[in-house]
Design brief:
The protein is mainly alpha-helical. It has one domain: P1 Nuclease. Helices cover 52% and strands 5% of the residues. The strands form three sheets. The protein has a two-stranded parallel sheet. Strands 3-6 form a two-stranded parallel sheet. Strands 4-5 form a two-stranded antiparallel sheet. Pfam families: S1-P1_nuclease.
Length: 303
């Protein structure tokens, strides 16, 4: 059965995808938060909208500039979930830079509570969830909402659970199938979202707006039949371990498995094949859906 967007969702879609060019890593974060927002009851959506109405002009400007929106663009929840990246150059938030990921030992086969207790993604999620509940300052509540939305996206990107020595795949050079991504992390952030047809077209001829609309519609439809209740019955450590399992697979092309060790790959470029792109694009789509469902469940309970 075809999923038909209501009028309000169509309006949201136009707002979300009004800008034709920006990094698709941003798009992934926006999709997670827009889809999670779609799942929420209207009273919870209104609470989010009320919080976002308190954004300072400076933060509105940061978000819109980062997303290449017009200055007067109304910031949606989807937009706000890129805020944690938009503030990376702001020294006041330097302490949060390591909260986007978790560095593990190459012998690690399981993320546990002892793996990291602070300043990493698995500590960031419960911290900002608690802040969303307990904070009394309006700015702290709003920041907790925006951080939390971003963290759910990050922990579901497999290479955010990875190794310090190669910067989470940023040192793993590749020959991309599509796009201009030069390393494995970048490919997962951006180019893996593209259709394979993009490899046969120039950027000038690629219809970004149509592509983004198609991805949103596709994931919205998949969400209707997704195992949402099963996905909700999990926690932060489960999500991290899902990512760890994905990166340790031989087909992922990130590790050379030697017993329990996930050894660094050699320095030769990895060629991204059609089979790799198709297989892992489907997994990336599922990770976006899982993040959306789990974020929606958290917000439904805490707001």
């Amino acid at each position: 059965m075809t999923f038909r967007l209501p009028i309000i969702a169509s309006i949201i879609l136009l707002i979300l995808f009004s800008t034709p060019v920006f990094a698709l890593g941003k798009l992934s974060h926006q999709l997670v938060c827009q889809l999670s927002y779609d799942l929420l009851p209207s009273n919870k959506q209104q609470k989010i909208d009320k919080l976002l109405a308190q954004l300072t002009d400076k933060d509105k400007s940061r978000i819109n500039s980062y997303n290449r929106n017009k200055k007067a663009h109304k910031v949606t929840f989807a937009d706000s979930c890129t805020w944690a990246d938009a503030i990376k150059k702001n020294k006041a938030y330097d302490s949060f830079k390591s909260w986007h990921y978790l560095n593990i030992e190459r012998t690690s086969t399981l993320v546990t509570e002892k793996t990291c207790t602070k300043n990493c993604i698995t500590a960031a999620i419960p911290f900002h969830r608690q802040q969303l509940i307990q904070a009394e300052n309006a700015q702290e509540i709003l920041e907790a909402l925006m951080f939390l939305g971003h963290w759910l996206g990050d922990i579901h990107q497999p290479l955010h659970i990875s190794f310090a020595s190669d910067y989470g795949g940023n040192r793993n050079k590749i020959t991309p199938l599509v796009g201009r991504c030069e390393n494995l992390h970048w490919y997962w952030d951006e180019c893996l979202m593209y259709p394979i047809a993009k490899s046969k077209e120039s950027s000038d001829n690629f219809d970004y707006l149509a592509f983004k609309t198609e991805i949103y519609n596709l994931l919205s439809e998949q969400l209707t039949s997704a195992p949402k209740q099963r996905w909700e019955k999990s926690n932060t450590l489960d999500w991290a371990n899902e990512s760890l399992t994905i990166i340790r697979a031989k087909a992922f092309n990130y590790c050379q498995i030697d017993g329990e060790n996930c050894l660094a790959k050699d320095h030769e470029k990895i060629t991204i094949t059609t089979a790799y792109h198709q297989h892992y694009q489907a997994i990336l789509h599922e990770r976006i859906l899982q993040a959306a469902v789990r974020l929606s469940a958290i917000l439904n309970k805490t707001l």
